């Protein structure tokens, strides 16, 4: 009940393209879904987060789409740049289980 | 406002020694989380603490590992009698309240020889 499944494991996209990373969760008590970006040798940095009362959230070039009935959410990166090359993690958290459960990560490479 | 501070950044220990990892949360944050990350893997939850209390330690190995977050001072993750399998990056995160966004430190890379 605690898993968050993330795909793909790795992704290569040309500059300007729109990489899409998908996550699915099992725990229906989850009500907070953040995305973290991690560069090699660094800690994860919060990118954007969503709660299930909305179906979409945009912050700059990053968009989360959320499908509550399917228990799925995804990250879209518009106009991707080589500087976006990093590992991206989705996660979920819920009341009564207030620790972030992370997906396994997606290594994104943006090629010029 | 300084971020989450972890030290040391790198720690080398021989098998059987003790490792102490320190985490100072962001100012105003009283909730601390510890995660472990193996190479090419995701972050695995270890323990969640609030000042002087362990809230959730369901991810902590039963033996050799302990954590504390005293009233004064940093949170400490302590690993006794380290083994090679303990080699990993250990990340600390803090939040101001329960069920709030977590901010991560830069981690401590533990290498066991």
User: For the terminal residues of chain B, how far apart are their CA atoms?
Assistant: 36 Å
Task: Output the structural class of chain A.
Answer: mainly beta
Unreliable segments of 5+ consecutive residues of chain B = none
How large is the share of residues in beta strands of chain B?
A: over 45%
Overall residue-averaged pLDDT value of chain A: 93
- Helical stretch count of chain B? 0
Alpha carbon gyration radius of chain B: 13 Å
Number of E-state strands of chain A: 11
* Largest interface in this structure: A-B, 22 and 24 residues
What's the gyration radius of chain A in Å? 13 Å
Q: Ends of chain A: how far apart?
A: 40 Å
Strand content of chain A: over 45%
Shape of chain A: globular
The portion of residues assigned to helices of chain A is under 10%
Mean pLDDT of chain B equals 94
Structural class determined from secondary elements of chain B: mainly beta
What fraction, in percent, of the residue positions of chain B are helical? under 10%
Major sheet characteristics of chain A: 6 strands, mixed
Taken in chain order, the helices and strands of chain A follow as EEEEEEEEEEE
Poorly predicted residue ranges of chain A: none
Total of DSSP H or I helical runs spanning 4+ residues of chain A: 0
């Amino acid at each position: 009940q605690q898993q968050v499944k993330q795909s793909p494991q790795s992704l290569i996209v040309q500059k300007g393209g729109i990489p899409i990373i998908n996550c699915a969760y099992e725990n229906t008590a989850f009500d907070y879904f953040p995305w973290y970006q991690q560069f090699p040798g660094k800690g994860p940095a919060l990118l954007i987060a969503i709660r299930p009362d909305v179906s979409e959230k945009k912050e700059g070039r990053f968009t989360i789409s959320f499908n509550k009935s399917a228990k799925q959410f995804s990250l879209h990166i518009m106009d991707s740049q080589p500087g976006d090359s990093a590992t991206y993690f989705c996660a979920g958290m819920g009341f009564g289980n207030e620790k972030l459960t992370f997906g396994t990560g997606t290594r994104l490479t943006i090629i010029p | 406002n300084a971020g989450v501070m972890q030290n040391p950044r790198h720690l080398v220990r021989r098998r059987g020694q003790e490792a102490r990892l320190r985490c100072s949360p962001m100012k105003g944050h009283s909730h601390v989380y510890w995660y472990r990350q193996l190479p090419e893997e995701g972050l695995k939850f270890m323990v969640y603490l609030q000042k002087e209390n362990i809230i959730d330690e369901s991810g902590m190995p039963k033996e050799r590992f302990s954590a504390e977050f005293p009233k004064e001072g940093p949170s400490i993750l302590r690993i006794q009698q380290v083994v090679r399998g303990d080699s990993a990056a250990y990340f600390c995160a803090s939040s101001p309240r329960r069920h709030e966004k977590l901010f991560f430190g830069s981690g401590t890379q533990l290498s066991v020889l």
